[in-house]
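fwd from M.: "can u put these together and see what the complex looks like"

so here's what she sent:
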Amino acid sequence: DQQVKQNSPSLSVQEGRISILNCDYTNSMFDYFLWYKKYPAEGPTFLISISSIKDKNEDGRFTVFLNKSAKHLSLHIVPSQPGDSAVYFCAASVENYGQNFVFGPGTRLSVLP
Amino acid sequence: DAGVIQSPRHEVTEMGQEVTLRCKPISGHDYLFWYRQTMMRGLELLIYFNNNVPIDDSGMPEDRFSAKMPNASFSTLKIQPSEPRDSAVYFCASGPNTGELFFGEGSRLTVL
């Protein structure tokens, strides 16, 4: 049973528009969340994180929103650029339990010029 | 720092052969992880170490899989004997006590 779910395997967005990637989790103990981006033939790279004491974290064009009651987080990319085309993984952990991150299956984002 | 270094980048082998994947974590990181990426399951955690000690190996699929971390700068993931269903990209990642993980570029394994 997947503890971290990304129900959209793929998403296509026009350049300049907003990309919204969603992630749901089932374990209420999770209190630290990250988004990773992965290009083909490369390892995942860290994008942005959020702790459960916040409901929003922003870094440039990337914003992550956390809704603890719904066990849902989302990554917003505004404006989307062709270079954002990649697979995005959501990951969750229990912060004081070390680094045992659970990853979702990923969403492939395609930003069309 | 050069980042997490994995070798080989690509491995093609025949069913039944032994496969050894290697990883050099970032110096100073307390944690080391082995993940497997497949189309069906995404990124699965196989095993992770803290200060060279295996903490959780519940993700290791079978006894054919084993992992070691003899020192803070080196880890291996071994599959013996390998099977076609083991074909995947295997990632090593390391991290400090808190914060994000840093991934290597992965080892793509093909078992014929």
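replying to her w this: The radius of gyration of chain B is 13 Å.
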